[in-house]
Amino acid sequence: MSDHASDFVLQAINFDTLEGWKDDDPSGLFEVMRSCRRITDVKPYRTGSLGLSSEDLLPLLAAAEDFTPSSPASARAFFETHCRPFLISRKDGNSGFVTAFYEPDIDVSERPDEIFRFPFYRRPDDLIDLDDANRPIELDKAYAFGRLHDGRVAAYPDRRAIDQGFLEGRGLEIAWAKSKVDVFFVHVQGAARLRYKDGRIGRITYAAKAGHVFSAIGKLLIDRGEIDRAEISMQAIRAWLARNPERVDEVLWHNRSYIFFREAPVADPQAGPIAAAKVPLLAGRSLAVDRMIHTFGFPFFIHAKSLTHLDPGRPFSRLMLALDTGSAIVGPARGDIFTGSGDTAGESAGTVRNDADFAILIPNAAAGRFD
């Protein structure tokens, strides 16, 4: 484990101690793992600071290649045979935390008019990836992107500057939406299905960001006393913005982070969006994690006792695969649950803000390094 992972420890546990494990049915994960195998054969996933690599994951993916579960119990037995569970314990004593995300459906136009005025932008050609070799000393290490202009690298213009026209006239627009707030929340989700006027369905997914740190507008509204902390949700934030149209820009510009998109194929409209791990997300089984710590493709068992509306009548307890990441997903036991596409999925996702226990399943050959 690297120094970057020094704020938490992995505690070896037994499957019998995973609350909710015996009631879970992870059968749907095998097709996704086969997709991960095909991706990693071409290009391994980036190794997070925990030190687990795609090579460590390979024995599990290889075993899944020809395995078809005959029952929920057989699916669980597969993971019990090939992995060992480790509880992720934060040294500060705080529990893990989950939120949720979804793929919105947005009405758009391929050309702007008096109604469809708010664009989704492709990645600009002056936006460059930053690392320790080319990042200017005045930019914090959190900046993974910057602007190369006239031979100099600097911070890219932020949400306010872009909303006020910085990118106009460069032909970067993918489509135009009717609402600035809708565009903002697509930025938060990182993907969307686009419904054009002629009935055509498109899809956009994350390509890059301007580089500025994500700042939650929900926290801003709580700190200002506009929304009670106990009532905060995506729905509550949207309702506040609808009641206060004259303050929308001020609040949205608080989050300087700005997301750029790429168009994605829609081979199967029922499949989830292809996110950071380059495989389609599976609703209810895909987790966004901090990719600086964790490596895509690894299984996580999430138990959130207070989260009961995703599995009505019982706590959320599911095995999931780490397949995505996000600006707000920071920390070893922090996850974002993908709930699916469309309005119903959005209603489910918008109210998820729950403490949770995180256990990572490590393939047997690599697990010995963490005893």
From TrEMBL:
Catalysed reaction, written as an equation: Exolytic cleavage of the (1->4)-beta-glycosidic linkage between N-acetylmuramic acid (MurNAc) and N-acetylglucosamine (GlcNAc) residues in peptidoglycan, from either the reducing or the non-reducing ends of the peptidoglycan chains, with concomitant formation of a 1,6-anhydrobond in the MurNAc residue
Pfam families: 3D (PF06725), MltA (PF03562)
Alphabetical keyword list: Cell wall biogenesis/degradation, Lyase
Keyword Lyase part of the UniProt annotation: yes
GO cellular component terms, semicolon-separated: outer membrane
InterPro entries cross-referenced by the UniProt entry: 3D_dom, MltA, MltA_B, RlpA-like_sf
Record EC number: 4.2.2.n1
Tree of life domain: Bacteria
MF terms (GO), sorted A to Z: hydrolase activity, hydrolyzing O-glycosyl compounds; peptidoglycan lytic transglycosylase activity
Domain Lytic transglycosylase MltA: 105-262
Statement: the UniProt record of this protein carries the keyword Lyase: yes
Top enzyme category: lyase
Entries under Gene3D superfamilies matching the protein: Barwin-like endoglucanases (2.40.240.50), RlpA-like domain (2.40.40.10)
Name this protein carries in UniProt: peptidoglycan lytic exotransglycosylase
Organism: Rhizobium leguminosarum
Upper classification of the organism: Bacteria, Pseudomonadati, Pseudomonadota, Alphaproteobacteria, Hyphomicrobiales
